[in-house]
Protein backbone atom coordinates (compact mmCIF):
# COMPACT_ATOMS: atom_id res chain seq x y z
CA UNK A 1 0.00 0.00 0.00
CA UNK A 2 1.15 3.52 -0.74
CA UNK A 3 0.72 6.70 1.28
CA UNK A 4 -2.19 8.74 -0.11
CA UNK A 5 -0.18 11.91 0.25
CA UNK A 6 3.33 11.14 -0.98
CA UNK A 7 3.29 7.63 -2.46
CA UNK A 8 5.90 6.27 -0.03
CA UNK A 9 5.17 2.94 1.59
CA UNK A 10 2.19 3.20 3.94
CA UNK A 11 2.59 1.94 7.51
CA UNK A 12 -1.01 2.50 8.50
CA UNK A 13 -4.48 2.10 7.09
CA UNK A 14 -7.12 4.05 9.01
CA UNK A 15 -10.27 2.13 8.16
CA UNK A 16 -12.52 4.84 9.67
CA UNK A 17 -11.30 7.44 7.16
CA UNK A 18 -10.00 5.19 4.39
CA UNK A 19 -6.57 6.87 4.58
CA UNK A 20 -3.28 5.07 3.90
CA UNK A 21 -0.38 6.89 5.49
CA UNK A 22 3.39 6.64 5.58
CA UNK A 23 5.17 7.29 8.88
CA UNK A 24 5.76 10.97 8.26
CA UNK A 25 2.23 11.70 7.07
CA UNK A 26 0.71 9.70 9.88
CA UNK A 27 2.68 11.87 12.34
CA UNK A 28 1.60 15.07 10.65
CA UNK A 29 -1.99 13.93 10.70
CA UNK A 30 -1.78 13.17 14.44
CA UNK A 31 -0.22 16.58 15.10
CA UNK A 32 -2.91 18.28 13.04
CA UNK A 33 -5.70 16.62 14.99
CA UNK A 34 -4.13 17.57 18.33
CA UNK A 35 -3.71 21.19 17.23
CA UNK A 36 -7.28 21.31 16.01
CA UNK A 37 -8.54 19.94 19.31
CA UNK A 38 -6.47 22.48 21.23
CA UNK A 39 -7.95 25.24 19.10
CA UNK A 40 -11.54 24.02 19.25
CA UNK A 41 -11.42 23.52 23.02
CA UNK A 42 -9.94 26.99 23.44
CA UNK A 43 -7.11 25.49 25.49
CA UNK A 44 -4.97 28.60 25.41
CA UNK A 45 -6.65 31.38 27.38
CA UNK A 46 -7.04 34.32 24.97
CA UNK A 47 -6.15 36.70 27.83
CA UNK A 48 -2.85 34.96 28.62
CA UNK A 49 0.22 37.19 28.34
CA UNK A 50 3.94 36.61 28.92
CA UNK A 51 3.50 38.43 32.27
CA UNK A 52 0.49 36.35 33.23
CA UNK A 53 0.83 33.07 31.30
CA UNK A 54 -1.64 30.19 31.12
CA UNK A 55 -0.22 27.52 33.43
CA UNK A 56 -0.57 23.88 32.38
CA UNK A 57 0.28 20.77 34.34
CA UNK A 58 0.78 17.71 32.11
CA UNK A 59 0.42 14.27 33.65
CA UNK A 60 3.48 12.45 32.31
CA UNK A 61 3.53 8.71 33.06
CA UNK A 62 6.17 7.67 30.55
CA UNK A 63 3.67 5.61 28.57
CA UNK A 64 3.07 6.33 24.89
CA UNK A 65 0.06 8.62 25.35
CA UNK A 66 1.53 11.11 27.78
CA UNK A 67 4.90 11.04 26.01
CA UNK A 68 3.29 11.86 22.66
CA UNK A 69 1.16 14.59 24.28
CA UNK A 70 4.11 16.23 26.00
CA UNK A 71 6.17 16.08 22.81
CA UNK A 72 3.44 17.67 20.67
CA UNK A 73 2.58 20.37 23.23
CA UNK A 74 6.23 21.27 23.53
CA UNK A 75 6.43 21.44 19.78
CA UNK A 76 3.48 23.81 19.53
CA UNK A 77 3.78 25.85 22.73
CA UNK A 78 7.33 25.23 23.99
CA UNK A 79 8.51 28.65 22.86
CA UNK A 80 5.24 30.49 23.45
CA UNK A 81 5.74 32.92 26.37
CA UNK A 82 1.98 32.90 27.05
CA UNK A 83 2.19 29.28 28.22
CA UNK A 84 4.02 27.79 31.17
CA UNK A 85 4.20 23.99 31.26
CA UNK A 86 5.11 21.60 34.02
CA UNK A 87 5.28 17.83 33.54
CA UNK A 88 4.26 15.85 36.61
CA UNK A 89 5.15 12.18 37.07
CA UNK A 90 3.59 10.07 39.78
CA UNK A 91 5.45 7.11 41.25
CA UNK A 92 2.87 4.72 42.67
CA UNK A 93 5.35 2.36 44.32
CA UNK A 94 5.20 -0.43 41.77
CA UNK A 95 8.55 -2.20 41.69
CA UNK A 96 10.19 -2.72 38.34
CA UNK A 97 7.40 -1.05 36.41
CA UNK A 98 7.40 2.59 37.48
CA UNK A 99 11.17 2.88 37.86
CA UNK A 100 11.68 2.15 34.17
CA UNK A 101 8.92 4.48 33.03
CA UNK A 102 10.31 7.21 35.28
CA UNK A 103 13.54 7.00 33.28
CA UNK A 104 11.56 7.59 30.09
CA UNK A 105 9.98 10.69 31.68
CA UNK A 106 13.29 12.08 32.88
CA UNK A 107 14.81 11.54 29.41
CA UNK A 108 11.94 13.26 27.65
CA UNK A 109 11.80 16.22 30.03
CA UNK A 110 15.56 16.72 29.74
CA UNK A 111 15.35 16.41 25.98
CA UNK A 112 12.65 19.07 25.76
CA UNK A 113 14.00 21.18 28.65
CA UNK A 114 10.57 21.10 30.20
CA UNK A 115 10.11 21.57 33.95
CA UNK A 116 9.53 18.15 35.52
CA UNK A 117 8.44 17.09 39.01
CA UNK A 118 8.13 13.61 40.48
CA UNK A 119 5.73 12.79 43.31
CA UNK A 120 5.48 9.44 45.09
CA UNK A 121 2.53 7.85 46.88
CA UNK A 122 5.02 6.85 49.53
CA UNK A 123 5.90 10.46 50.36
CA UNK A 124 2.36 11.73 49.94
CA UNK A 125 0.37 8.99 51.65
CA UNK A 126 2.92 6.60 53.13
CA UNK A 127 1.62 3.79 50.91
CA UNK A 128 3.02 1.79 47.97
CA UNK A 129 0.70 0.26 45.37
CA UNK A 130 2.53 -3.07 45.60
CA UNK A 131 1.51 -3.33 49.28
CA UNK A 132 -2.00 -2.03 48.65
CA UNK A 133 -2.53 -4.63 45.91
CA UNK A 134 -1.36 -7.39 48.26
CA UNK A 135 -3.42 -6.35 51.28
CA UNK A 136 -6.49 -5.06 49.43
CA UNK A 137 -8.59 -4.18 52.53
CA UNK A 138 -11.61 -3.06 50.49
CA UNK A 139 -11.59 -6.12 48.25
CA UNK A 140 -11.47 -4.24 44.97
CA UNK A 141 -9.17 -3.87 41.94
CA UNK A 142 -5.81 -2.15 42.62
CA UNK A 143 -6.66 0.48 40.00
CA UNK A 144 -9.64 1.59 42.09
CA UNK A 145 -7.29 2.70 44.89
CA UNK A 146 -4.64 3.93 42.52
CA UNK A 147 -7.09 6.11 40.54
CA UNK A 148 -8.31 7.86 43.69
CA UNK A 149 -4.75 8.55 44.87
CA UNK A 150 -3.65 9.75 41.44
CA UNK A 151 -6.55 12.17 41.13
CA UNK A 152 -5.77 13.57 44.56
CA UNK A 153 -2.09 14.11 43.75
CA UNK A 154 -2.82 15.66 40.35
CA UNK A 155 -5.43 18.00 41.82
CA UNK A 156 -3.27 19.15 44.69
CA UNK A 157 -0.18 19.66 42.57
CA UNK A 158 -2.11 21.47 39.91
CA UNK A 159 -3.45 23.74 42.64
CA UNK A 160 -0.11 24.31 44.31
CA UNK A 161 1.38 25.16 40.92
CA UNK A 162 -1.55 27.54 40.52
CA UNK A 163 -2.38 25.71 37.29
CA UNK A 164 -5.13 26.86 34.98
CA UNK A 165 -5.45 23.47 33.31
CA UNK A 166 -4.57 19.88 33.93
CA UNK A 167 -3.72 17.98 30.74
CA UNK A 168 -3.76 14.21 30.38
CA UNK A 169 -2.94 11.87 27.50
CA UNK A 170 -6.27 10.04 27.16
CA UNK A 171 -6.67 8.83 23.58
CA UNK A 172 -9.80 8.09 21.53
CA UNK A 173 -9.97 4.48 22.68
CA UNK A 174 -9.74 5.45 26.37
CA UNK A 175 -12.45 8.05 25.96
CA UNK A 176 -14.83 5.82 23.99
CA UNK A 177 -14.44 3.15 26.68
CA UNK A 178 -15.20 5.59 29.49
CA UNK A 179 -18.18 6.98 27.59
CA UNK A 180 -19.69 3.57 26.98
CA UNK A 181 -19.03 2.48 30.56
CA UNK A 182 -20.83 5.55 31.93
CA UNK A 183 -23.77 4.98 29.62
CA UNK A 184 -24.04 1.25 30.30
CA UNK A 185 -23.88 1.93 34.03
CA UNK A 186 -26.78 4.35 33.55
CA UNK A 187 -24.97 7.06 35.47
CA UNK A 188 -26.24 10.29 33.94
CA UNK A 189 -24.66 12.49 36.60
CA UNK A 190 -21.30 10.98 35.73
CA UNK A 191 -22.02 11.73 32.08
CA UNK A 192 -22.74 15.36 33.00
CA UNK A 193 -19.64 15.58 35.15
CA UNK A 194 -17.50 14.21 32.36
CA UNK A 195 -18.46 17.16 30.18
CA UNK A 196 -17.80 19.83 32.76
CA UNK A 197 -14.61 18.21 33.97
CA UNK A 198 -12.90 17.30 30.76
CA UNK A 199 -14.78 17.71 27.51
CA UNK A 200 -16.01 20.59 25.45
CA UNK A 201 -14.74 24.12 24.92
CA UNK A 202 -13.52 25.79 28.11
CA UNK A 203 -15.85 28.75 27.82
CA UNK A 204 -18.89 26.43 27.76
CA UNK A 205 -17.97 24.46 30.84
CA UNK A 206 -19.39 25.56 34.11
CA UNK A 207 -21.16 24.32 37.18
CA UNK A 208 -22.29 20.77 37.99
CA UNK A 209 -20.08 21.19 41.02
CA UNK A 210 -16.91 20.64 39.06
CA UNK A 211 -15.80 24.24 38.66
CA UNK A 212 -14.21 23.81 42.09
CA UNK A 213 -11.54 21.68 40.40
CA UNK A 214 -8.75 22.56 38.03
CA UNK A 215 -10.24 22.05 34.55
CA UNK A 216 -9.02 19.06 32.55
CA UNK A 217 -8.10 18.84 28.92
CA UNK A 218 -7.41 15.79 26.78
CA UNK A 219 -5.87 17.02 23.55
CA UNK A 220 -5.23 13.46 22.25
CA UNK A 221 -8.83 12.39 22.53
CA UNK A 222 -9.41 12.35 18.76
CA UNK A 223 -6.47 10.05 18.08
CA UNK A 224 -6.87 6.25 18.21
CA UNK A 225 -4.53 4.38 20.51
CA UNK A 226 -2.76 2.55 17.71
CA UNK A 227 -1.92 5.82 15.96
CA UNK A 228 -0.45 7.23 19.17
CA UNK A 229 1.76 4.14 19.43
CA UNK A 230 2.88 4.49 15.80
CA UNK A 231 3.54 8.19 16.35
CA UNK A 232 5.92 7.47 19.23
CA UNK A 233 7.62 4.77 17.20
CA UNK A 234 8.13 6.92 14.08
CA UNK A 235 9.23 9.99 16.08
CA UNK A 236 11.53 7.71 18.11
CA UNK A 237 10.27 9.04 21.46
CA UNK A 238 11.45 7.52 24.75
CA UNK A 239 8.46 5.42 25.75
CA UNK A 240 8.01 2.83 28.43
CA UNK A 241 6.01 -0.05 26.98
CA UNK A 242 5.49 -2.52 29.83
CA UNK A 243 2.08 -2.92 31.38
CA UNK A 244 1.52 -2.36 35.09
CA UNK A 245 1.49 -5.74 36.88
CA UNK A 246 -1.65 -4.68 38.78
CA UNK A 247 -3.60 -3.64 35.69
CA UNK A 248 -6.86 -5.54 35.90
CA UNK A 249 -9.91 -3.38 35.49
CA UNK A 250 -12.14 -6.22 34.39
CA UNK A 251 -15.14 -4.22 33.20
CA UNK A 252 -13.05 -1.84 31.13
CA UNK A 253 -11.34 -4.86 29.53
CA UNK A 254 -14.72 -6.22 28.43
CA UNK A 255 -15.75 -2.85 27.00
CA UNK A 256 -12.40 -2.56 25.25
CA UNK A 257 -12.81 -5.84 23.39
CA UNK A 258 -16.44 -4.99 22.60
CA UNK A 259 -15.44 -1.67 21.02
CA UNK A 260 -12.53 -3.34 19.25
CA UNK A 261 -14.88 -5.84 17.57
CA UNK A 262 -17.43 -3.17 16.68
CA UNK A 263 -14.70 -0.99 15.18
CA UNK A 264 -13.48 -3.91 13.05
CA UNK A 265 -16.94 -4.52 11.62
CA UNK A 266 -18.11 -0.90 11.58
CA UNK A 267 -15.13 1.45 11.19
CA UNK A 268 -15.80 4.83 12.79
CA UNK A 269 -17.63 3.42 15.81
CA UNK A 270 -15.28 5.08 18.32
CA UNK A 271 -15.70 8.45 16.66
CA UNK A 272 -19.47 8.16 16.60
CA UNK A 273 -19.60 7.03 20.24
CA UNK A 274 -17.68 10.18 21.17
CA UNK A 275 -19.63 12.54 18.94
CA UNK A 276 -22.90 11.34 20.45
CA UNK A 277 -21.52 11.22 23.96
CA UNK A 278 -20.20 14.73 23.85
CA UNK A 279 -23.57 16.06 22.79
CA UNK A 280 -25.36 13.98 25.40
CA UNK A 281 -23.03 15.03 28.16
CA UNK A 282 -23.38 18.71 27.26
CA UNK A 283 -27.17 18.32 27.49
CA UNK A 284 -26.90 16.43 30.76
CA UNK A 285 -24.53 19.06 32.18
CA UNK A 286 -27.01 21.79 31.25
CA UNK A 287 -29.85 19.94 32.84
CA UNK A 288 -28.11 19.44 36.16
CA UNK A 289 -27.07 23.07 36.14
CA UNK A 290 -30.68 24.17 35.57
CA UNK A 291 -31.82 21.94 38.40
CA UNK A 292 -29.15 23.42 40.63
CA UNK A 293 -28.49 19.78 41.31
CA UNK A 294 -24.73 19.60 41.18
CA UNK A 295 -23.07 17.41 43.81
CA UNK A 296 -22.65 19.97 46.62
CA UNK A 297 -19.03 20.04 47.72
CA UNK A 298 -17.65 20.51 51.18
CA UNK A 299 -14.21 20.08 52.68
CA UNK A 300 -12.78 16.77 53.90
CA UNK A 301 -12.38 17.03 57.67
CA UNK A 302 -9.08 15.09 57.54
CA UNK A 303 -7.19 16.41 54.56
CA UNK A 304 -9.11 19.50 53.45
CA UNK A 305 -9.69 18.36 49.88
CA UNK A 306 -13.05 18.85 48.21
CA UNK A 307 -15.59 16.12 48.73
CA UNK A 308 -19.33 15.52 48.83
CA UNK A 309 -18.98 13.63 52.17
CA UNK A 310 -17.48 14.49 55.58
CA UNK A 311 -14.35 12.49 54.84
CA UNK A 312 -13.11 12.15 51.27
CA UNK A 313 -12.71 8.82 49.51
CA UNK A 314 -8.95 9.02 49.56
CA UNK A 315 -8.88 9.47 53.35
CA UNK A 316 -11.36 6.60 53.81
CA UNK A 317 -9.21 4.31 51.65
CA UNK A 318 -6.04 5.33 53.48
CA UNK A 319 -7.72 4.58 56.82
CA UNK A 320 -8.77 1.13 55.57
CA UNK A 321 -5.22 0.43 54.35
CA UNK A 322 -3.75 1.52 57.65
CA UNK A 323 -6.17 -0.67 59.59
CA UNK A 324 -5.40 -3.74 57.46
FE1 LIG B 1 -2.33 2.16 39.10
FE2 LIG B 1 -3.92 0.39 37.86
FE3 LIG B 1 -2.48 2.16 36.46
FE4 LIG B 1 -1.27 0.14 37.73
S1 LIG B 1 -2.72 -0.02 36.03
S2 LIG B 1 -0.62 2.28 37.69
S3 LIG B 1 -2.53 -0.01 39.57
S4 LIG B 1 -4.16 2.61 37.87
ZN1 LIG C 1 -9.51 13.68 52.63
UniProtKB/TrEMBL annotation:
Biological process terms in GO annotation: tRNA wobble position uridine thiolation
Binding site for Zn(2+) 1: 3, 6, 22, 25
Keywords attached to this entry: ATP-binding, Metal-binding, Nucleotide-binding, Transferase, Zinc
Taxonomy, superkingdom: Archaea
Binding-site positions, Zn(2+) 2: 300, 303, 312, 315
A GO cellular component annotation in the UniProt record: cytosolic tRNA wobble base thiouridylase complex
MF terms in GO: ATP binding; metal ion binding; transferase activity; tRNA binding
Residue ranges occupied by any tRNA(Ile)-lysidine/2-thiocytidine synthase N-terminal domain in the UniProt entry: 56-190
Domain spans labelled 2-thiouridine synthetase TtuA-like N-terminal LIM: 2-27
Residues bound to ATP: 59-61, 65, 90, 169, 174
Pfam families to which the protein is assigned, alphabetical: ATP_bind_3, TtuA_LIM_N
Record InterPro entries: Ncs6/Tuc1/Ctu1, Rossmann-like_a/b/a_fold, TilS/TtcA_N, tRNA_thiolation_TtcA_Ctu1, TtuA-like_LIM_N
NCBIfam families in UniProt: TIGR00269 family protein (TIGR00269), tRNAThiolNcsA (NF047749)
Protein name: TIGR00269 family protein
